[in-house]
Amino acid sequence: MTVDQWIALVAGIVGGALRVGAPFLFVSLGECLTEKSGRINLGLEGVLVLSAMASFGGAYYFDSPWAGVLVGASAGAALALLHGLLCSLARVNDVATGIALMLFGTGLAFYLGKPLIQPQAPQIPAIPLGFWSDNPVVRSALQLNALVPIGLVIAVFLYWGFARTRAGLLVRMAGDSANATRALGYSVSAIRIAATTAGGAIAGLGGASLTLFYPGSWNEGISSGQGLIAVALVIFARWSPLRCVGAAFLFGGAGAFGPALQSIGVGWGYHLFNTVPYVLTLVILIFTCKPGSVAIGSPGELSSTR
Q1: In 3D, which of 207, 240, 243 has the Cα closest to residue 32?
Q2: Is the CB of residue 207 less than 8 Å from the CB of residue 222?
Q3: CA-CA distance, 7 to 189, in Å (whole number)?
Q4: Which residues of the chain have pLDDT under 50?
Q5: 4 neighbors 135 (Cβ within 8 angstroms)
Q6: CA max distance for the chain
Q7: Measured between alpha carbons, how far is 285 from 139 in angstroms, rounded to an integer?
Q8: What percent of the chain has pLDDT over 90?
Q9: The domain at 3-126+145-302 falls in which architecture?
Q10: What pLDDT does residue 304 have?
Q11: How would you class 257 by CB atoms within 10 Å of its CB: exposed for 0-12, middle for 13-18, buried for 19 or more?
């Protein structure tokens, strides 16, 4: 390959990591917050799809991408709140409820989103990171979703909040020991409902990234399982918001590898390269989820040995 092709390939992978990794970033941060409180939300796939549809609809009807972002975050928070309320009931299983809400969220999005498949909605503005290059391929590849800096701020805020704030301490305490939390007079259910709802709102920003930036339209197959992959991302990141950032962009780069090769004329194995994120998910789960052992950083209430 020529030097220009190498530059275009690297720019394509980096730019693709930023584009494809944006939904992973927000969903993994939302799930990190939820799991830190001692609750698992496998319904994040439904949250992602419903918020993607809601974001597109909000942007289309209000003629503003930022209105769409707010609608998407609100839809994600609402579905996550339902999950939190149901899981706070006696003898209700988090995993089963999450799967049910995943089906409910996706089904509701498909039903309500039928009129939105053809229309075009205003898109989130892009930050041109390729301004330094005269290569149009590089300029096109390095278009940063304006929501990504917001995601980085959220990651730093969560990291700081878990370590330095009373609210963060309560979330971590509820996730590590429900009995200790109750002994201090705090409601475990209230903390987990609040954390789950906030996590759903953050994940809703990932849905907005899908329909209002890349790929920038609404269709029923838009998520491709990214909400479920986010659960593996959180495990891989050891429940650290900052490591979630790196994991999200790693998966984004894996997903962008095939299109980046195609952009420089390498067409063989295109569909094979599209499977890289899913293979990476399986590898991570195999090496991090060993029977009889507890993953480093796992909240105590999620421990498989309890």
Answers
A1: 240
A2: no
A3: 51
A4: 304-306
A5: yes
A6: 66
A7: 36
A8: 59
A9: Orthogonal Bundle (1.10)
A10: 46
A11: buried
